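Following up on my earlier thread - several people asked me to post the actual chain instead of describing it. Fair enough. Here it is, all 173 residues.
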Amino acid sequence: MTTATPPVRVLLPDGEAAWVRKLEAGDAAAVLALRARLSGRDRHVRFFGLGVAGLAELSTQLSHSSGVGHTAVGCFVHSRLAGVARYDILADPAEAAVALVVDGHGPALGVAALLLEQLAVSAEHEGVRMLVADTGAENAKMLGVFAALGIPFRPGLQREQPAAAERNAPSPE
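Reply from S.P.:
Thanks for posting it. Predicted structure:
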């Protein structure tokens, strides 16, 4: 029996229907397929934090219990994983490192905002009041998403002061 979080149906700005839900162990293959579709530009410029190594690590972590302190959500368009967002609570439990990646080969319009919004809601339920993201001024698109959604955010290194569970996780490939 599964205890999966029911997906939420959403409409992207172009009218395309998508589903957003927490990721689980059965999604590991979809995460790896997303990883394979990413170009170097998508990994290093367009989005932040979950580049190729981070997605491989996430696909491995999905096979373990998700638990308190970290969550990953995915957006599916036509059963294809179009993007992933995750957070990990930092040493200060009011802050969480957030990472996001969206497939640049599909209908990406609005996927980042939907994922970030869903992630912020989950983090808020755990007492997080500030998201920390490894993104720079050159990524005006993502900075604009944070601003448009009104999500409390500060730039910082994704890997700073992870919570105890993350400090003991295996390093990315």
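Residues 111-125 form the longest helix (15 residues). That should answer part of your original question.
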